[in-house]
């Protein structure tokens, strides 16, 4: 078995629950009612996505840490 790491974006939704996306796997989205469920669903979605890639003879993307930024940006806006 091979182990891979993927960046996962989990966002709290205004109506409740969490939306999950995996930037390096286009179209890989899922959701969960709680943060823990969202993390579990993300792992399941990643496994299913990668299984489909392998089934179709496509490589599993490897993320480059040099090409990403994860963090917060402080932005000053001029008054309207």
Summarize the structure.
By secondary structure, this protein is an alpha+beta fold. The chain has one helix at 35-55, and strands at 9-12, 18-21, 29-32.
Describe this protein's structure.
The protein is of the alpha+beta class and 80 residues long. It has one domain (9-67): Double Stranded RNA Binding Domain (2-Layer Sandwich), CATH 3.30.160.250. Helices cover 26% and strands 15% of the residues. The protein is built from one helix and three strands; from the N terminus they run βββα. It has one helix spanning 35-55; strands at residues 9-12, 18-21, 29-32. A three-stranded antiparallel beta sheet has the order 1-2-3, with helices on one face. A hairpin with a 5-residue loop joins strand 1 and strand 2 (18-21).
Helix vs. strand class: alpha+beta
**Largest sheet descriptor:** 3 strands, antiparallel
Beta-strand residue fraction: 15-25%
What overall form do the CA principal axes indicate? globular
As a whole number of angstroms, the C-alpha radius of gyration is 16 Å
């Amino acid at each position: 078995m091979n182990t891979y790491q993927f960046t996962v974006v989990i966002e709290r939704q205004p109506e409740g629950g969490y939306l999950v996306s995996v930037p390096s796997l286009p179209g890989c989205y899922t959701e969960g009612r709680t943060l823990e469920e969202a993390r579990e669903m993300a792992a399941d979605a990643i496994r299913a996505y990668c299984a489909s890639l392998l089934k179709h003879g496509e490589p599993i993307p490897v993320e480059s840490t040099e090409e990403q930024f994860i963090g917060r940006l402080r932005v000053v806006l001029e008054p309207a």
